[in-house]
């Protein structure tokens, strides 16, 4: 009998051709809404493998009820939705989709920086609403990017790719990471600083850390108060690293100039969310890796991760060994 695989969201059929040769595959039929928890538990209970999204909680409850589960392949580089230590204890292989999304996510992070600095979304809205009555010296004036100081918090693959882009804009680049990366520093001409120093001296603070117990809530009132009043904060990692009420206060009281967010604590956020009232906040619906090319590659890699585990091979992107 072929193993049973459940895919928790609609992905292009062509990306799972190979997987379908060796497994019976069922896919949740909705492209936008997450699979309800009850259905996920029912499917997991029968499954050898799951292909999941970051909105699916893979926890003790699910794993305890899934006696055949061998592999969970997350369609993301982040895997904070999965209890990895517990999976390891149960002998379940967890996989992710690194590398294929690095440049795409760095492009989006830089686009978010530029959109916030140069007020691009506000300007686009302005013209569509018929407000443009004439050229004026300070109309929609933003702030420069070139030759400014960029502080990257989290120097992983995406951090490096953002630094490369910033170098092309002649930015002075600082970074903070839980461990120093001297080779990367030399290669990309970066300066390592404490978290506090990065906050104090950067014109742009970009957060690219994974969500862990250590990084949760790291951007709190104290962090925003430490930044320059002219600073712009950007988050393209996970919403949980930011205390949103603190950011709201920072934008309201002018502790910082503006913010660009691709991620939120609760996703999707509602249109009446308190952060969205700020004109100096650019908000995007978690589209860091959202290009057709990259999403296809992510889906193929996630399927390949499952295929390999089913065939007793090492998957291309294991998270737990
Ligand atoms: C990731 O890969 O972790 C992104 O946030 C989802 O595309």
Automatic annotation (TrEMBL):
It holds the Pfam family 2-Hacid_dh_C. Belongs to the D-isomer specific 2-hydroxyacid dehydrogenase family. Its EC number is 1.1.1.-. The lineage of its organism: Bacteria, Bacillati, Bacillota, Bacilli, Bacillales. It is an enzyme of class 1 (oxidoreductase). InterPro entries: D-isomer_2-hydroxyacid_DH, D-isomer_2_OHA_DH_cat_dom, D-isomer_DH_CS, D-isomer_DH_CS1, D-isomer_DH_NAD-bd, NAD(P)-bd_dom_sf. Keywords: Oxidoreductase, Transferase. One of its GO terms (molecular function) is transferase activity. SUPFAM superfamilies: Formate/glycerate dehydrogenase catalytic domain-like (SSF52283), NAD(P)-binding Rossmann-fold domains (SSF51735). Residues 110-288 form the D-isomer specific 2-hydroxyacid dehydrogenase NAD-binding domain. It comes from the Bacteria. Residues 5-320 form the D-isomer specific 2-hydroxyacid dehydrogenase catalytic domain. This is D-glycerate dehydrogenase.
């Amino acid at each position: 009998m072929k193993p049973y695989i459940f895919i928790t969201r609609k992905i292009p059929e062509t990306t799972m051709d190979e997987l379908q040769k060796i497994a019976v595959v069922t896919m949740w039929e909705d492209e936008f809404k997450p699979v309800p928890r009850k259905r996920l538990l029912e499917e997991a209970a029968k499954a050898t493998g799951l292909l999941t999204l970051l909105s699916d909680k893979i926890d003790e409850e699910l794993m305890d009820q899934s006696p055949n589960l061998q592999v969970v392949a997350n369609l993301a580089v982040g895997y904070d939705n999965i209890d990895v230590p517990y999976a390891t204890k149960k002998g379940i292989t967890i996989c992710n989709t690194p590398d294929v999304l690095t440049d795409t996510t760095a492009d989006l992070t830089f686009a978010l920086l530029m959109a916030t600095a140069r007020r691009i979304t506000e300007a686009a809205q302005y013209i569509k609403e018929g407000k443009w009555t004439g050229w004026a010296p300070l109309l929609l004036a933003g702030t420069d990017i070139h030759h400014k100081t960029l502080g990257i918090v989290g120097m992983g693959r995406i951090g490096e790719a953002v630094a490369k882009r910033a170098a092309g804009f002649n930015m002075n680049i600082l970074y903070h990471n839980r461990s120093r990366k001297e080779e990367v520093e030399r290669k990309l001409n970066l300066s390592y600083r404490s978290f506090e120093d990065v906050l104090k001296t950067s014109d742009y603070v970009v957060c690219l850390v994974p969500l862990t117990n250590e990084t949760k809530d790291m951007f709190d009132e104290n962090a925003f108060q430490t930044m320059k009043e002219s600073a712009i904060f950007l988050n393209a990692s996970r919403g949980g690293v930011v205390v949103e009420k603190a950011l709201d206060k920072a934008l309201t009281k002018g502790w910082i100039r503006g913010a660009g967010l691709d991620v939120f604590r609760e996703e999707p956020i509602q249109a009446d969310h308190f952060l969205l009232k700020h004109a100096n906040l650019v908000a995007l619906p978690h589209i860091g890796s959202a290009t057709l090319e990259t999403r296809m590659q992510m889906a193929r890699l996630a399927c390949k991760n499952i295929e390999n585990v089913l065939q007793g091979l090492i998957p291309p992107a294991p998270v737990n060994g």
